C-alpha cells in the first residue's frame, strides 16, 4: 500500500500539472484493514453507535462488504452526529461532528490518497496537519522572518468560521486541478453533503467540510492552498514594493511586510479575495501591527508617541513581542498568550475537581501527564516565566481542592509543602529551541537568510 502511495507522490512531484485519472484502485482491502488498525479504539461512536471493538468482531466480512459497496458505488456516508465541546478561552461552545466508524475508515483511506498528491503541491508557508511539520516549526520560521528580514508590519488575520464555510463547488473545482477520477471525486462529494444529525433532526450541509472528519484538515489545506497561499505567492508578493512573507497553520495565518502601504493594500484586497470564495475576515480579530526592529528602537528612543508603540500579536497560542538581547540587539520573544493561559488553567481546574476523590497516587500521576503535555507545547525559548506561573497556579488550585475532599480542612500550607515533597508536581523546562530548525525544513532557513 505504502509503495503505491509513494509512487503516486513521486509522479505528482515530477509532474506538477499532471491530473490523476485512476486512484480508486488504491483503496483495496489491504488499505482499509490498515486504516482500521490506525484508528484509535476509545473514540465516541457515530449515529450507528458502532465502536471499533464491535466492528472488529467480523472484521474480514465487514471490510469485504464495505469494499464491495464502494466498488458498486452503493456506499453512502451516514450523517455525522453533532455534539458541542467548550471553546477554549470563551463561554461559547464549538460544534463537533462524530462520523460513524465505517465512514472514519473510508475517510482515512481517501485522505491517504489525496495527501500523497497534494503534499507535493503545498507551499513551504503551509504547516498545519502536514507530515514532519508542526506548530513549533511555523513559529521558528516566523521568528526568522521577524528577526532577520526587513519586516516592519504584521497583518494578524483570522478567518471567521473557516471549516463551516468552505464552498463545496469551489472545493470540487480545486480538487479537479489534480484529480480526474470521477469515482473518488464522487465519494468526496458525498462526504461533503452527508449532513448533520442533531437531537434526532437531520440538517443538510450546504457548506463546510465534514465536521470531525479525518479528511477535513487535508481538504481545508487544499482550499486555502488555492485561495490564499498561491495567491499570496504569485500575486501579492509581485506587487509589493518591499519584502513580504506568509506563515499559515491550518486556518490561522500571519503575513509580514516591509512597508505599511503593502500591508494596508493586502488587508483591503484580502477581504475581496476571501469573499469570492465564500469566506470572511473576523475584523474584530484582524489588525495591522507596527512590529519589528525599527518599531522597537523607535519606541526605545522616543521617536513615536505612546499610541504608536509596537503592539503584540498572538499566533498559535503565543504572544509575540519585541525585545532585545543582553548586548542590546533586537530580537523577538514570545510567551503564552493570556487567553490560552486562562483557558488551560480552567481546564486543569475542572479536571482536578472531577477527579478530586480518586487516590492521591493516581490523581498526581494523571495530573503530571497533563502538565507534561502542556510544558512540551508551551516550553519554548523565553517562556520560562509563564511556565513557572502556570505550575504555581496549578499547585494553588490543587491545594484548595484537596482541602475539600472532606468537610474538615485537612491541609495547611506547611502540610501541603510536605505533600509536595512526597508527591512531586511535574516540573517545567524548555523543550523547544526556537533557533533550531529540523532537517525537514532547514532548506527554508537557507532561502530566508
From TrEMBL:
Residues 66-320 form the Reverse transcriptase domain. Pfam families: GIIM, RVT_1. InterPro entries: DNA/RNA_pol_sf (IPR043502), Group_II_RT_mat (IPR030931), GrpII_Intron_Splice-Mob/Def (IPR051083), Mat_intron_G2 (IPR013597), RT_dom (IPR000477). Coiled coil: none annotated. This is Group II intron reverse transcriptase/maturase. CDD domains: RT_G2_intron (cd01651). Keywords: Nucleotidyltransferase, RNA-directed DNA polymerase, Transferase. GO terms for molecular function: RNA-directed DNA polymerase activity. The keyword Iron-sulfur does not apply. It comes from Clostridium grantii DSM 8605.
